[in-house]
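User: Could you write out the 3D structure of this protein bound to zinc ion? I've included everything you need below.
Assistant: Certainly. Input first, then the structure.
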Amino acid sequence: MDRRPKTYGALADRLEVEHCRGMRRDGTYCYQSADHHVGDVTPDGVIHWADRQMQWPGLVRFLKLVVISQNPKTVTFKPWQRVYLLNKHLTGVAREANTRIPTKYLRADRAFVRASVASLSNDVPLRKEAFDWSRREAGQTWD
Ligand SMILES: [Zn+2]
């Protein structure tokens, strides 16, 4: 079985996303306003992310940037809908990367979604799915 890539460069190759480390191939610096240490996605879909040792918080953030690069922003969505959809796609991207995100790194997103939808009616688009997802606990993160 394939293992999760050990570097961000290898991970970007596996997921077929364009990855900028802050330095171009010709040796000049990337002048995008992107902060390569925090990480960002530019409208051209490029993920700007400085190389670093791979640790869970960074890896989760990088995978979220991959989802964002593959799913252009929809302004009509409310923040909780965006967070829910981001996490829904995140499962698939993590699987492609041969990894599984420990539930504790998704807890803050779940709490935010749960609090946001608690008082909404089930007629609101995505509300029921988002609420069910927000209540899922450890060991049940795979859909
Ligand atoms: Zn860059």
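The CA atoms of residues 84 and 130 lie 6 Å apart.
User: Perfect, thank you.
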